[in-house]
Amino acid sequence: MKKLGLRVQHLLAQISIPFTFGLSIFFMKGLMGYRWVDLKGARDKIRSQIGAKPGPLMICPNHLTMIDSLILVWAITPFWKAMGKARMFPWNTPEKTNYAHVAILRFFTYIGKCLPVVRQGPQEKTRTLMYKIKLLLTWSQSLMMFPEGARSLTGRVDTENYAYGVGKILDDVRQEGLEPRVLLMYLRGKGQKGKSTLPKRNEEFYLDSQLIDPRSKSTGLRASRDISKQIIDGLAEMERIYFKNNEGMEPLIP
User: Fold this and answer.
1) Residue 124, C-beta contacts closer than 8 angstroms, at least 6 positions apart
2) This model's pTM is above 0.85
């Protein structure tokens, strides 16, 4: 039943793309005035990276606002290309408590390819979520997860206090004989100094991406930690390059 449920959700999400993409872009571009630094160049790069080799793909961005995943889905591809290539419309794993109390949000997260996460919830729910995530990756789908586990308190990629969940998933999938790859995505609004609910109005976004293949010779928790560290370090390096090229825009660290 879990497999059937995922396939039904996937089908409904793909059919709903013109509606969901149109509504979200109207909110972000039309109402909030968000814009991009060279969106075409960023999309061309992402398309070449995602299309370079078939197989499971984990998209790992930095995390500063509550709508980062929405902004990134907008950035990855226009809606008509997402309809023809499902991998260009990644699955997401939002925290359930952020939307479960509002029926309309539950509806939009369902057709927006979201799997709810319950932090510190019952083990059975965690096992079900992990099963679905691994199943999607075995189907060569793309999945977006924030490796830091939460929005950064300092406005910088948190290289010390981060979760190992992404590393565990990648290690487990590799143990099953698959070859998952990771697409790092560094997103930042030029006026973003620290974490926030929404980016400010008329924000201009910078986006860079890098395809990596994190591996570990260890097993178990060490493997999860090693793989997670490679991902976090990669994002931190992308951030270092961003601030090097944009001096005077460093976040205000409390």
Assistant:
1) none
2) yes
Which of 96, 99, 182, 91 lies closest to 144, judged by CA?
91
Residues 123 and 129: their CA atoms lie apart, in Å, by 10
Strands (E), the chain: 35-36, 57-61, 91-92, 142-144, 181-189, 204-212
pLDDT at 25 over 90: yes
Structure tokens belonging to residue 139: 């189907």
Instruction: Give me the number of domains the chain comprises.
Output: 1
> Within its chain, how far is the Cα of 65 from the centroid?
12
Q: Which long-range contacts (CB under 8 A, 24 or more apart) does 243-250 make?
A: 246/190, 246/206, 249/190
Residue type, 59: I
177 assigned to some structural domain: yes
Instruction: Give tens-digit pLDDT for 190-222.
Output: 999 889 999 999 999 999 999 999 999 999 999
Q: Return d(Cα 136, Cα 141) in angstroms, integer.
A: 5
Give residue 102's pLDDT band: very low, low, confident or very high (50, 70, 90): confident
Residue 253 in domain: no
Q: What is the CATH number of the domain that holds 144?
A: 3.40.1130.10
- pLDDT band at residue 100, thresholds of 50, 70 and 90? confident
Tokens of 112: 């927006």
Question: Is 207 in contact with 185 (CB distance < 8 Å)?
Answer: yes
CB 114 within 8 A of CB 91: yes
